[in-house]
Structures are given as C-alpha cells and as structure tokens.
Amino acid sequence: MYQYDAIDKDVLADRAAEFREQVDRRLKGEITEDQFKQLRLMNGLYLQLHAYMLRIAIPYGSLNSTQMRKLAEIGRTYDKGYGHFTTRTNLQFHWIKLKDAPEILDHLASVDMHAIQTSGNCIRNVTADPYAGATADELDDPRVWSEAIRQWSSLHPEFSFLPRKFKIAITASAKDRTAAKAHDIGLMIRRARDGQLGFEVIVGGGMGRTPFIGPTVREFLPANRLFSYLEAILRVYNRHGRRDNIYKARIKILVSALGREEFARQVEEEWAKIGPAGDLPDTEIARIRGAFAPKAFDVLVNRSEKYEAALATDPAFARFARNNLKPHKRAGYTIVEVSLKGIGDTPGDATSEQMEVVADLAERYGQDDIRVTHEQNLVLPHVRLDDAHTVYLALAKAGLGTPNINLITDIIACPGLDYCALANARAIPIAQDIAKRFADQDRAELIGELKIKISGCINACGHHHVGHVGILGVDKKGEEFYQLTLGGSGAEDASIGKILGPALPADKVTDAIDTLVEVYLRERHDGERFLDTFRRTGDAPFKEAVYADAH
Amino acid sequence: MRALTGNRLTDGEAVFWKAGAWVERFADAELFAAEDAAETAEGHAKAQQTIVVDPYLIDLVESEGLWAPVSYRERLRALGPTNHPMHGKQAEGGAAIEALRHAHGAARSTGRVNLIKRK
Asked: What are phi and psi of A183, to 5 degrees?
C-alpha cells in the first residue's frame, strides 16, 4: 500500500486546520451559507435530510486495518455506530454534526485519509479493480496507475473547476469489476503484440440523466504516455464542456455532440502540443510501483487439506466458498468477498463492530489489505486457503457471512430518500424487500448471477442503468414509483438497460422482480445468465408477464 | 395549513419554527393558517443565518386528527430514515409520530419548489 510522505501529511494537517477556521467563520456569521457551501463540499460535507453527511475518500477502494479501525471509531464517536460504503468505493457517514467535522478531519489525517475531492467539479476518487494484485488474469497492477492518478489529480489547479465532476476507472483484467465503460474515462490495461504495456482509453461513458457506454477514443496508448494524454482529454473538456447547462456539462455530452472521431482528433491535437513533457518520469512510476510490490506470499501447494475438510463438513462454508471465494494468482491463497448485503439489511452499511472484525481479520489473515468494491461489498484479497474457514466463521459470527456475491440479493442501492436531499424515492426498503423475497439461498443460486441496482433518483448513484435489472425511483405527484430497466451491464459486456414499461408503485416492485425471475427460469437455455436470456429473447416475454400481473 | 422548517446549522437537525425559535419535534411546530403570518415568519427565519440553513414553508394535511406534512419527503424529515426505526425523531414514538407515519399526501411542498427554483 502507498505510504504518505511528510508533504502529504502536512497537506492533510493544513487542510483540516483550514476547514476548522472556515467552520468557525460560518458559525460566527462571518460568511454566508452560499459562501460556506462551496468550502464544505470541497471537504466532502453535504447537508442532507436529517444531518450533515461526510463522504470520505477511500482511494481506489484500498485501505488497511488501521484506517478501517479509524472509520469504525469515527462511526462510533460521531455517527450512530455505522457507515455506508458507496458505489464510488467511498464511505459516507450520515449523521455528522458540522461542529464535529473539523475534528473528524483531524482523525482521518492521522491515518492518511481525508474527504478532499469527494464532491465538486473535480477529478474524483479513481475506481480500480478490487482484486488488484490478487487476481491471476490482470496484466498489471491497476493500483500503481490509480495512485499515480491520485497524486497527479489531487488539488491539481487546472482541473479543480471542471465543467462538472469527473470519474476515472482502471482495470487490468478481461473481467471488468469497475464499470469502466460507464465512467468519464475508463482505462483498460492492454499489452501490445511486442509486449509493451498500454491502455485502451474509453471516454464519455456515464450514467445519470443521459446514460452512455463510453466509446474507445484510442485503442492503445503506451503506458508511459498516460498523463499527457489524460491532460489532453481534460483540456479539451475544460475548453468545450457545457458550463452553461448543468444537465449537459459532463464529458459524455461533449463526446456525444462532437462524435468519437472529432473528439479523439481534438485530443490528439492537444496531446501533440503537450508532448512527453506532460508525462510522469519512469522513475516516478517505478517509485510508486515499489509501494505495491507483491506481498510476501508463502510458497504453498494449491490444495489445502484443511480447506477441503471444512468444505466437506460445513455445508454453510461450502456455500460461502462457492459464492464468495474467488481464485487467487498464488497457489494456496484465495480472494474473500465480504458481503455487505445481509438479507434485510441496508446495502453497503457496516457497523463499527463489523468494520473492526474485518480489520482484525485483514491484519491477522489477510496481509493487512482491505478493498471496497463498487458493488458495495468488501474484499480481503489475500487469504490462505488454510485460513479461509476460520475467516468465514469470524465473518459469519459478525453477520458478514452472507454467501450471495453476484446473486439476486447482492443488490446495489443508493441511500435514496431515507437520507439524500436529491432523492425522489427510497431505494433501501425496495432492496430489503427484494432480498427478503429471495432469502432462500438454494433458489438464489438456482437463479445465478443477477445484478439488481437501485437508484432513488435520476442521478443514478445506484447504477440502475447498468443493472441486469435496474430500478429507478421516481416521484409521481409526491408518491414513490419505480421504473424498471432490463438488460443493462456495467461489466466488460457493458450496456444500458431498456425501460420495460410504466413505473410501478412501491408495493408492486418485488412481485414484478419475482415475475421477471420466473420468466427467465422458464425461458433460459443451459448456462445462460438472466442477462444472456434477456439479450436473446428481448423484452417481450418479460414485459408481457410483468404488466399482465400489474394490471 | 403550513409550517416552517429548515436544518439547524450546527448539526443539520431538521427543525421547525415556533414563535421565533426552532424546535426539533414537528408536533411542537407553529402552524400557520394565514398566508401573511407564514410569510412573515419565513422572512424572519431567513434572517437567522447562523441558526438555520435554507428555511422554507411546507404544506400540511390532516392525519388522525393531527397535522402532517403533505409531502413524503417532509414526513421523512420529521420522522427519520425508514431503514432504521430507532434513528431520528421517530425513536421517541407516541401518537404524533404514528400520525406522521400514517399520513398520506401526494404533493411536494410549494416552499421547497420555490427554493429549488431560486437556486
């Protein structure tokens, strides 16, 4: 993991001190709310329905046990004993008091954390593959590039006031676990025929009011030219992005308006002007790479007798292993996904006690490494197969053993109208209700991979556009209604879901999901996921069944 | 009937106007039958910049013999999040909380719509 140096630490200490002064001036009436709002948002502090919300950056979703324990402590001291992991792999506290915020920033700074650039029209937290450094199918460690981008983009004066917010994702695996094609920039690490490392550069994806799967603007960008090329993209965006209209200000609108070819041409032109002077020296990349050097893995055989014995004697563990353990690149190790989707719980929420359990397990069994996924779960990326059962038992005891990764109950949901000032409808109770309906694990496994994603408004923090089944809360004259979209995907086979029909009242949503599942089970061919069946059949059988039931 | 609400500056708590001061419980809020009185109070509230953030008027309907905000959003502010029944104002329970929970309404508060337009 990257270690902050003295300069980084000074910057965070200064920032916390500066915010303390700004809060003090606001409380004394020396600055107005309109003036203060910009300042608090630059430190991730929003005012929501019941309290302030503090959004804390977890750079590329990576943290250690000390940082996780600090988040637990903040949750216990300043919130109501829990936190909410988001689709941006950040953590939000929903019950923060303004007067406590400077002290919380001090706490965060003490463990090299902060809330800078978690709001505002700047480059936000980079999303990286949560299996980075652990999965066998990656071409390079995306954290190296994510960290370099973090350093480059943090407090970057030219890119602090973009037309709108800007999100970058990086993946190095064929399997995309970052929703790269739905980001402002998606970087997919590629290797050329001659072995050279580089990126496929996708620009102009996004969700929200106008969803797009981003087009590829450059098939292969040599890795050592990344920063000049990013600078060129952002300059074109800064110059032409629609500052006049907030709904058209994201880069996706610019790319769509100019067309992929013209946008790419302008970027290339700008890139030529910047030249290699805009790139990071190889020595700097090498320095950062050093922070992500492979851990000291033990040399093990691929078969663990202890693990096999546990599988044979503990059916609950066997189920957990089937769904939550993923192959590791090193023999004798496994990647453990920790579901924050307990049946009936709030998706993405973890109590302070649960955070501490995960921190303890990471420290003792997981090389002190914890990841947050954009699907609102946690990952212990390096666990020995010998320890997997022990880890599972500890997770299960803490209510974290739900064996449902990628299943129908592994639902993304934004905080929705229960907390968020922007929401039109609640998202959490819909997720809870669906999860309860499909609580039978045998049935959930029979259904297989099915990604439900719920947003409480068109801003799409719940990624509904790229859900196999997306659910969007809408406000119909003050009543909560829900629009279903089918056939979306945020993975390597990315697509935007198609609206199925008129929005449904809240009490009809779970029944409609049940109907969709029944149609899928009836129609599916061998080996087809829900998404595959939908893509083959189209929406007709699904639409017919849902609206026959609803009316 | 209308009430005046906002979020308290120091902690973000949803608060309601009562005779020149702010109270946390919706049940204690001052109710305005007269448009003039409501708007006068709103004017005073907007001057209290170090106490409350973005005050606005909300419309009310009758529920179980008590008054409740018309809009669902405002009822949630007066209650707390539905996924944690013991968080927020709803935790104290009682008839006033139940009346809010059972209220029905189907319109946004005009005051908030004006606030959004102003921004």
From this structure: -105, 165
Q: Which run of H or E residues covers position A217? A: strand A216-222
Q: How far apart are CA A137 and CA A174, in angstroms?
A: 7
pLDDT of residue A379: 98
Global pTM value: 0.96
Question: What confidence tens digit (pLDDT) does each residue in A150-182 have?
Answer: 999 999 999 999 999 999 999 999 999 999 999
Are A95 and B76 within 8 A, CB to CB?
no
Beta carbons of A222 and A230 less than 8 angstroms apart: no
Give how far A221 is from chain B: nearest CA, Å: 42
**Rounded Cα–Cα distance for residues A36 and A22 (Å):** 7
Q: Give residues with Cβ within 8 angstroms of A258, minimum separation 6.
A: A240, A266
Query: Measured between alpha carbons, how far is A57 from A64 in angstroms, rounded to an integer?
Result: 13
- Place B104 in a pLDDT band, splitting at 50, 70 and 90: confident
Same fold, A6-109 and A305-397: yes
User: What's the whole-number mean pLDDT along residues A22-41?
Assistant: 97
Complex ipTM value:
0.92
Q: Does B102 touch chain A (CB under 8 A)?
A: no
User: Hey, what's the torsion of the CAs at A208, A213, A217, A223, to 10 degrees?
Assistant: 90
- Residue A170 dihedral angles phi and psi, to the nearest 5°: -135, 130
Identity of the residue in A32, A97, A480 whose CB atom sits nearest the CB atom of B10 = A97
CATH homologous superfamily of domain A127-290?
Answer: Sulfite Reductase Hemoprotein, domain 1 (3.30.413.10)
Looking at residue B68, its pLDDT comes to 93
Q: Does domain A6-109 have CATH number 3.90.480.20?
A: yes
Q: Which fold has domain A305-397?
A: Sulfite Reductase Hemoprotein; domain 2 (3.90.480)
Closest residue on chain B to A417 (Cα): B73
User: What CATH fold (topology level) applies to the domain A412-550?
Assistant: Sulfite Reductase Hemoprotein; domain 1 (3.30.413)
Q: Which of A26, A27, A51 sits opposite B12 (nearest CB)?
A: A51
Instruction: Give the H or E element holding residue A499.
Output: strand A498-499
A346 touches chain B (CB under 8 A): yes
- The confidence score (pLDDT) of residue B112 equals 57
Residues B4, B16: Cα–Cα separation, whole Å: 6
pLDDT in tens, A515-532: 999 999 999 999 999 999
Are residues B53 and A95, on separate chains, in Cβ contact within 8 Å? Answer: no
Measure the CA–CA gap between A529 and A531, rounded to whole angstroms: 5
CA distance A123 to A185: 10
CA B36 to chain centre: 18
CA distance B87 to chain A (A): 8
Query: In the prediction, which pLDDT does A206 show?
Result: 97
- Cβ distance of A97 and B87 shorter than 8 Å: no
**Which member of B14, B53, B82 has the closest CB to residue A418?**
B82
Task: Grade residue B110 by pLDDT with cuts at 50, 70 and 90.
Answer: low
pLDDT in tens, A446-456: 999 999 999 99
Chain A segment 413-472 residues within 8 A of B by beta carbon are 417-419, 426, 428-429, 432
- pLDDT at site B118: 47
Whether the pLDDT of residue A318 is over 80: the answer is yes
> Which single residue is written with the structure tokens 């937290």?
A125
A429 vs B contacts (CB less than 8 Å)? 82-83
Q: Which residues of A touch B51 (CB under 8 A)?
A: none
Chain A residue closest in CA terms to B90 = A50
For residues A515 and A528, the answer to whether their CB atoms sit within 8 Å is no
Per-residue confidence (pLDDT) for residue A474, from 0 to 100: 96
